[in-house]
Amino acid sequence: MSPRRSRTNTPHEIVERALELSRADGCAVIADEHSSANLRWAGNALTTNGVTRGRTLTVVAAVDGGQGTASGVVSRSAVTADDLEPLVRAAEAAAREAGPAEDAQPLVGGEKASADFTEAPAETSSEVFAAFAPALGESFQMARSGGRELYGFAHHEVVSSYLGTSTGLRLRHDQPTGTLELNAKSPDLTRSAWTGRATRDFTDVDPRELDTELSRRLGWAGRRIELPAGRYETLLPPTAVADLLIYQMWSSGARDAAEGRTVFSRPADGDGAAGRPGAGTRLGERLSELPLTLRSDPRAPGLECAPFVLAHSSGDDASVFDNGLPLTATGWIREGVLNRLLTTRHSAGLTGLPVAPGIDNLLLEGGGSRSLDEMVAAAGHDGPALLLTCLWYIREVDPATLLVTGLTRDGVYLVENGEVVGEVNNFRFNESPVDLLSRAVEAGRTERTLPREWGDYFTRAAMPALRIPDFHMSSVSRGV
After folding, report:
1. Rounded distance between C-alpha atoms, residue 361 and residue 376, angstroms
2. 3-class state of residue 140 by DSSP
3. What is the pLDDT of residue 479?
4. How far apart are CA 266 and CA 339, in angstroms?
């Protein structure tokens, strides 16, 4: 390796060199340094473990033309100093070949720099499991003696993102992300229970505690009860609430709402005044009689995420021109009232609404203090109630109402007179997250949770359990 290549192969130097090479009218460069460690197990025994490292470099070139500013975005992996000039030229060529970018805005300016911008990237290693792995071994022993088998994985990743722009920004963010998924099965594989946790460093998760909960659920499944489709009083645990509300957030773009295409659009005969900011949207409308607050905050304890925009591509609710834009605490729903919709600088200008980019965490608070177990004790007194474990295979049916369908998985339990009396068959459900908020009659205690369906994309969530008096189980599913 040449001395020149060695000197310019650190992330911040790669960013600086790419900016030096740029001939575009504006340029933004993001270097993402990835490191990950994982453990996998099956049948009460470790099967694999590993550690990986990698780099992805994204170059955004902005080229001014007679009809407006065009952008070209190119991302490549394993980039070194020798790869930089071809990558920068490819981004510039993509910009010249593209038409004017609809979301074009001046790049975010300012001579802002993170104090650690020139420091080495943060990394994870197998040491992150130093305390967790022995506890997992004890869980295997507990499971064997209890006649059950544990399957699952633990994954930890750290991404150090370095953002530099031709307007002077030099920002850096380190994002640790840990997930644990644990599945317990009976030896004949006819009964299954799941639980999961999100963590930053695996110091706050105990697999023995989770195995104890799984053992209890497998015990509930010892009695099998068949129920028909219908509407049931249902307790949605925090993980299921997270999956539904994350999808709701992803579907809450201000532009689509203002143009009448989503559940957040005001009906055509509504009273929205033309020219009013947010006209045509349901902003200011009460969505829930409960005092529910749905919010995101880059500095939420335990759920910390990037405090500035990191956009690797443009879309309906993200813009590469917004890279580096500061992010602050945002209340999407306040005390049950719709307060904000997702906006880039471009869509904010179109709708007249405040700029409110997406943030990589989500919290729902409803003022409740009861645990899920306490909510179970209060359920099923006026008829059968269902306790869900998690949801999966969630798909949109109707954007106008945000109707989604999906399946229950790994345990649906029947609650009668405050006690779980057995496991019932799985169901397909048809529900709208927005409609569920309007019908919820109780929110429990907010706690950190791992979304089951969207955990590969979104892990930082804190949700309460919700009690829905008439959750729609549209058909019986024979899946586990």
Report:
1. 28
2. helix
3. 60
4. 14
The DSSP call for residue 100 is -
Q: Which residue has the tokens 């130097």?
A: 13
- Encode pLDDT of 430-458 as tens digits: 999 999 999 999 999 999 999 999 999 99
CA atoms within 13 Å, Cβ hemisphere of 48: 8
DSSP helix/strand/coil, 138: helix
Q: CA dihedral in degrees (223, 229, 232, 236; nearest 10)?
A: 70
CB of 358 within 8 A of CB of 460?
Answer: no
Reported pTM: 0.94
H-helix or E-strand containing 136? Answer: helix 132-145
Cα dihedral sign for 371, 376, 382, 388? positive
Segment 304-308 mean pLDDT: 98
Are the C-beta atoms of 410 and 381 separated by less than 8 Å? no
Residue 3 has a pLDDT of 38
Contacts 24+ apart (CB under 8 A), 44-53: 44/140, 44/143, 44/144, 44/149, 44/150, 45/140, 46/136, 49/126, 51/124, 51/125, 51/126, 53/123
